[in-house]
């Protein structure tokens, strides 16, 4: 029953986020602030992780190509497929659930504990729209981060392959071009959009409806990370099943 | 004026407010006192509409809050100011921005007009030269004054204060009490203060409501509170040794 209650509360929250809008002159400032903290603030860590994991994927692929009959361009091919299909959209989203999700839950949770949300309510402000809507809008730019991750992941693979002496530059570039299916990129961005919505709303739910004090803020951040990750993984499975199998 | 009629509130099976009726007069400082867990904060939050009620009615002036539509409630909210126990200031905003916030959200004033009004209020709550400071850079007493400033910036008809003296030293508590009372008289607003502080009761308790286990235990003025025959109120008021001595002196004076 409690699970049903929580799911119901979540959907009521979503409907209220899109009700009674905060005036635009205030909202645009909030959106810019959220873009700065949620998107711009994540570029560094996403770039770093993408570059090195891309490199590791290329090295692992190269080390497993023991058969001399297998072409070296397979390293580029495997790196591209891994990065575009799973690593950039899904793995980075789970990392973002830790970084952005915890930030959202703890900031809203602290506002709840310190009665700042009650203060907004007393003023007659739609707190759902004022606090959560800017986060959803900011995360519309999330595919931009995933694009950077895709590029740097493949670039990291390229650098690791060339400087590790696993294949030539021409082999790698040929590998990332062969059998390229543009739909795979559309699929990656399609699921990224779902992940962005999950990343904005699940942590907001855990922060907004927090009960208790400082200790509960920490607990809520952990719970929020777990549930955001679970939903990302499950959604990934469902979308993959629907779009890539026929 | 706020009138509460037969207010009843429960959480599941647990009754937290039982048939409370009272009236909070305009231009007076109305105090709600009682032990922790007696229902003071829930009572205040029910009046504010932060909690729904099971039955009863709350009137702001002659209008029933329960019968108001969304637009009327929205207008009413602009006439309410609230000072929270922990001040509830927005951490990332300066003192000036905190005070300007309700105007930014609810009025169409120009930035210059808002800034002028904010400076007026900042001067009124004695915070000159603190405009650009963040809440983390000022003392607890100053934070309370910012919260009072934010609550009165829209010229409210109703001011609610939830334990405005908590965590403050006695001198700062007196300053805050006097400031609230001055503002109440100056703007002729209906002020409701939730407090544990007996000094506040003595200093500014023009109308005192004592709550006991979700019930209205007693009601009167700060003068009557010293002479009441109600044992529960007396036990609560005179629980400290200092106040026991005050009562002794008061009773001896009365005899003479």
Shape of chain B: globular
Note poorly predicted spans of chain B. Answer: none
Number of strands of chain A: 0
| DSSP summary, beta strand count of chain B | 10
Q: Beta-strand percentage of chain A?
A: under 5%
Listing every helix as H and every strand as E from the N terminus to the C terminus, the arrangement of chain A reads HHHHHHHHH
User: How would a textbook summarize the main sheet of chain B?
Assistant: 6 strands, mixed
Characterize the main sheet of chain A: none
Strand content of chain B: 15-25%
Our count of helices of chain B gives 9
Helix and strand composition category of chain B: alpha/beta
Mind explaining what this structure looks like?
The complex is a heterodimer of chains A (246) and B (256). Chain A is mainly alpha-helical and 246 residues long. In chain A, 84% of the residues lie in helices and 0% in strands. In chain A, α2 crosses α5 (127-138), α3 packs parallel to α8 (182-208) and α8 packs antiparallel against α9 (214-244). Chain B has nine helices and ten strands. In chain B, the strands form two sheets. A six-stranded mixed β-sheet of chain B has the order 6-7-8-3-9-10. A four-stranded antiparallel β-sheet of chain B has the order 2-1-4-5, covered by helices on one side. In chain B, a hairpin with a 2-residue loop joins β9 and β10 (215-220). In chain B, α3 (95-106) packs parallel to α5, α4 (111-124) packs across α5 and α6 packs parallel to α7 (198-204). Chain B is globular. The interface between A and B is medium-sized, with 14 and 23 residues.
Question: What are the defining features of this structure?
Answer:
heterodimer; A: 246 residues; mainly alpha; 0% strand; elongated; B: 256 residues; alpha/beta; six-stranded mixed beta sheet; four-stranded antiparallel beta sheet; 9 helices; 40% helix
